Amino acid sequence: MSARQRKDPEVRRAELVAAAAALFSERGVAATAVSDIVRAAGVAQGTFYLYFDSKDDIVCAVAEMLIDGMVARIESALDEPGRSAIEKLDAMASALVEINDEPYEVELMGIFHRPDNLAFHDSVNRSIVPRLMPHLARIIGQGVDEGSFVAEDPEKSAWFILGALQGLELGFTGTDEVREAVGQLRAFVLRGLGHSGVPTPGGSGGAA
């Protein structure tokens, strides 16, 4: 048995996802075929179908990889020492915007949000919320200690904010639309947490 055949399935799957992500970034999603992906990964076309049922499946896997990277950046920002609670929330907003920075990312997210991919979409979302909730609750508690926020129960407030984030994720897709919505959500969250001096939604308040 060759070294290629002995490769761990998770490693092989990750290689296919990485190859697809690189091609999507270079060519766009629509212009990339499964044959391009397997050629870039150095595997036979049949190998692809051991891991994915269709091109849509690997598109969703790449979208999941991007989202996982976004969540990791948020977790890092929310746990970074020396930042105020508001600075941490702004870092979170910036990470949300970054995932729609590139045209291919907008393509990916459009496919990820299609009704026929709802089960996969919901599964990814369910994995995100438990990761973010404790970090966000700690940030709200930090803001209360700093005198920036007013919240009787930081955990409940964190759940409310995550619910609003899910609404944003479902309701907005275009790059400019997402940027504007994140800025408005930031203002909405800060007002809800009792922070004064928040710009109005029609203003330029974004994720600074």
Short structural description:
With 208 residues, this protein is mostly helical. It contains ten helices and no strands.
Describe this structure in words.
- It is a single chain.
- By secondary structure, the protein is an all-alpha fold.
- It folds into 2 domains: 1-52, Homeodomain-like (Arc Repressor Mutant, subunit A, Orthogonal Bundle), CATH 1.10.10; 60-208, Tetracycline Repressor, domain 2, CATH 1.10.357.
- Helix content is 73%, strand content 0%.
- It is built from 10 helices and no strands.
- Helix 2 packs across helix 5, helix 5 runs antiparallel to helix 6 (85-98) and helix 6 runs antiparallel to helix 8 (118-146).
- The longest helix has 29 residues, at 118-146.
- The chain starts with a helix and ends in a 16-residue tail after the last helix.
- Residues 200-208 have low confidence and may be disordered.
Helix share bin: over 70%
Poorly predicted tracts of residues: 200-208
Secondary-structure element pattern, one letter each: HHHHHHHHHH
Number of strands: 0
Query: What is the third-level CATH name, the topology of the largest domain?
Result: Tetracycline Repressor, domain 2
Topology of helices and strands:
Blueprint: H1 3-6, H2 9-27, H3 34-41, H4 45-51, H5 55-78, H6 85-98, H7 103-112, H8 118-146, H9 154-171, H10 175-192
